[in-house]
Design goal:
Layout (H helix, E strand, L loop, with lengths): L2 E10 L18 E9 L4 E6 L3 H9 L15 H5 L7 H11 L7 H22 L3 H5 L6 E9 L4 H14 L3 E5 L7 H15 L4 E5 L8 H11 L6 E3 L7 H10 L3 E4 L5 H12 L3 E2 L3 H4 L1 H15 L2 E2 L7 H13 L6 E4 L4 H4 L8 E2 L2 E3 L12 H7 L3
Helix pairs in contact: 1-4, 3-4, 6-7, 8-9, 9-10, 10-12
Length: about 375
Amino acid sequence: MKITGVELSVLKSPGLYDQPQDSSEPLGPTYMGVVKVTTDAGIRGYSDMETCATVAKACVDAPKWSQDEGMECFDGLRSLLLGQNPLEVERLWYRMYRGSIYYGRRGVAIQAISAIDIALWDICGKFYGQPVHILLGGKWRDRVRAYASTLFRSTPAAMREAVKAYVDQGFTAVKFGWGGFGADRRRDVSLVEAARRELGDGRDLLVDTGWFVERTPKEAIQVVKSLEPYAPFLVEELLHPEDYDGYRRVAEAVDTRIACGEQEATEWGFQQLIERGGVDVLQPDLTRCGGFTVARKIVHMAERANRLVIPHSWSSDLLTAASLHLTAFERRAEFVEFSTSQGPLSRMLVKEPLRMVDGHLKVPEGPGLGVEVNDAVIEQYRIA
């Protein structure tokens, strides 16, 4: 079997992403990339990617730079993959990484590699007739508890309304993040307090403080301690993603779990988060960290270091399905992130959107990712 095509479609939602002013849901991503890898056996693999999709498309479409196999360092990702065996995921990951190394290593290049890698694992599963979690090494669970992932609302009353809606939908955990959090510390506390009061003691509350708010480690410690009376399961993204030493200071100073990693990439980056950053919870995004090939290594690293892994999966049901496979592969798994954002790019990329039952999402059992991509939706919202 050989790879015959690697295509990245740029999709645009009809509405612009915006912060809700009341308890209503945000629309979700404005732009999204969707990768499709095709083979001469008629098997196709897919992945979405939450990045600057137009830039990622340039990484995929760029031409081959040299005929010398030893000079692959400026090449477009498609040119590195055409004619290759898609089942050789580990070799192809390194081929893409080395072949893009002069313009890549991190950022949009590794994100494009990540999405292609997920699509290759999807092909592997379809070829062997097995779900991805079996190819990763095994399934420890059939379902995973989902937390509603949403933005902070602007008032305590709107927070309570939003929480009530999530509880009514069956969620037993909710994460609020970004929005207006960080503009006023007293208001921040009042928003978290309102969420906890509405959730009660029997459900979990997660907090994403948003690292775009500039904080010193001492200020981050103060933020966490101000929220600890409301028992957050974790607090994430307190500092700049590369402030590893700052994260260690925070993690060692508070009792609450400190989480980070959705902006991190490669096994080397996550080794830094564990050994230097000392965070309690790693949050690899499969479309940013390096795909399944890297995420499997991250899970092994986390198990050796006794850390939790809770994947970041905000973009669409396609990424959530991929994250369910990774979570099924983990020996210990607490949650899967479920974006509550509305809009066609969040909810319509797969023909049968994921459904929550009793606060849990079922791990897909079909071959590959176990979900069927809606090609009509891709064509409808495709702009490039």
